[in-house]
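My current task is to audit a protein record that another person submitted. Please read both lines and tell me whether the tokens look consistent with the sequence. Do not assume that whoever made the record got everything right. I have pasted the whole thing underneath without changing anything:

===
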Amino acid sequence: MIPPIANRFVAGESPSEVLEHVRTLNTRNVAGICNLLGEHYDDPADATGDTYAYIGLIDEIADAGVDGCVSVKPSQIGLDLGQDVFDENLTKIVERGAERDVFVWVDMEDHTTTDATLDVYEPLVREHGGMGLCLQANLKRTREDVERLADAPGKVRIVKGAYDEPSEVAYKDKGRVDEVYLELIEYMFEHFEDGVAIGSHDPAVIARARQFHQEYGTPYEIQMLTGVRTDAQYELAAAGVEVYQYVPYGQKWASYFYRRVRERKENLLFAVRAILS
């Protein structure tokens, strides 16, 4: 059982718990992006197991009729074991998503995995649609990657980037990353037909996305994490903005929770208050 100190950021350990969380979100007009926690497997059985867990989750989302989708990490379904393993397992997930009309997001990991992830994702999205990919604004290559996917079906989620990448491949100055982020999403509003996904909690970014939407008319959605600015998520949804909450779940919750606590002082204060109470 996940202790109260962690359940702000993680929906539970089982598919039934994550689906119940998504049902609750849906009552506030927020959709859920369900992520089974796990990454960097070196055992093929682990990658296969999580692949079929996602296939089962897709079926449960479709059967339950909730407004939700799934998001997978490449290293969770075999990228560390070989690009062919990742390709085979992601194809199984995407094909089931297409059969059941459940959208499949592919997360992006550190810069060493970008080429392999794109090379597997692009032919799948062009064949099946119903997919999205996360790209990171702090990487210097991302403008070219965004342009590469401009005419592909599916969506791209832009985030600022959570990995400590070397300066040779990434912008290190926060102000520069913020500038590049806005440049990237403006390009997407201008050139992407299937919409723009804004992965950010930054009020300034969200305000600019609204302005770009008004200027270009391109549909967009805001994506935020479970437990972070939840009231803002509900307020945006109430104002008619399409909002998705990224909802992690699973037995590997501890490392994810401690990452959330370390990255923002507000999360650390929450954890301390939970312990004291």
